[in-house]
Amino acid sequence: MPQYHTRAGTVSLPDAKSSYPTFPKVGFDRAVAIGIDAGFLCALLQVQHLILEQLLTHRPNSYVPVRTMGNHLGVSADFYSRYFDLLNNLHHYGMGMLAGPMRAIMSCYGVIGPVATFIHAGIRIMMDQTVELTAGTSALP
Predict the structure, then answer these.
(1) How many domains are contained in the chain?
(2) Could you tell me the residue range of the domain that residue 121 belongs to?
(3) In sequence order, what DSSP letters do the residues of 35-58 get, joined into one string?
(4) 35: exposed, middle or buried (C-beta count within 10 Å: 0-12, 13-18, 19+)?
(5) Is 84 within a domain?
(6) Source organism's superkingdom (predicted)?
């Protein structure tokens, strides 16, 4: 806290930065649970947004998430065509539930604001690229 000197003596008043707790109010395990829930909800919104976008623009489905999950799970080509939506949603929800705890832990330890959002966007892109590269469904950017 900054100190202000007056005639009566030194006074310490909290400012905006020092009003944050020095230790997180939420434990690590609770932050991870909150992140998993938030990641699921964000993935739900993402999937709904993609459906709306495809309805308005008549854009075809992307097969990259389906192939990525199928290659990691080792399923047959027939399984791809029969369970396209299952594999697609498994990829979106799974990646959201993996990335959500990262952002929650960042917030728990005080990494907040637009810089944290920018960092998390990079983490999410890195996670998607890593999963796609290990499955062999994508090339290096």
Answers:
(1) 1
(2) 26-62+90-131
(3) HHHHHHHHHHHHHHHHHHHHHHH-
(4) buried
(5) no
(6) Eukaryota
Whether the model pTM is above 0.85 = no
Three-state DSSP class for 7?
Answer: coil
**Which residue, 65, 49, 80, 70, is CA-closest to 127?**
65
Give the C-alpha separation, 132 to 31, whole Å: 27
In order along its 141 residues, the chain shows pLDDT tens digits of 566 777 777 777 666 666 665 666 788 899 999 999 999 999 999 999 999 999 999 999 888 999 999 999 999 989 988 999 999 999 999 999 999 999 999 988 888 889 999 999 999 999 999 999 999 988 887
